[in-house]
Design goal:
Non-ribosomal Peptide Synthetase Peptidyl Carrier Protein, Chain A; mainly alpha; 52% helix; 81 residues; ACP-like_sf
Length: 81
């Protein structure tokens, strides 16, 4: 499963993302795809799935909450391994 597919599948556990949605601008936290507990689990799952670690600074960044930026961050981390 590729990064984009994994992230989208994980986020759609509660409700489906509309096909017309601009993923680069979709704030999955504000839109309710994950709650505070769900976010912790989501981050843990991403780290485990891709064998990466997010820094506190990365997780605190507003960009971390946007699907497109999160996918790009994961891709960057994997390219630096």
């Amino acid at each position: 499963m590729d990064i984009r597919e994994y992230v989208l599948t994980s986020l759609q556990e509660k409700h489906e993302i509309e096909k017309h949605e601009n993923l680069d601008e979709l704030n999955y936290v504000e839109e309710g795809y994950v709650d505070s507990f769900g976010l912790v689990q989501f981050v843990f799952d991403l780290e485990e799935q891709f064998n990466i670690t997010f820094s506190d600074e990365e997780m605190m960044s507003k960009d971390f909450q946007f699907v497109g930026k999160l996918i790009q961050l994961i891709e960057d981390k994997l390219s630096n391994l």
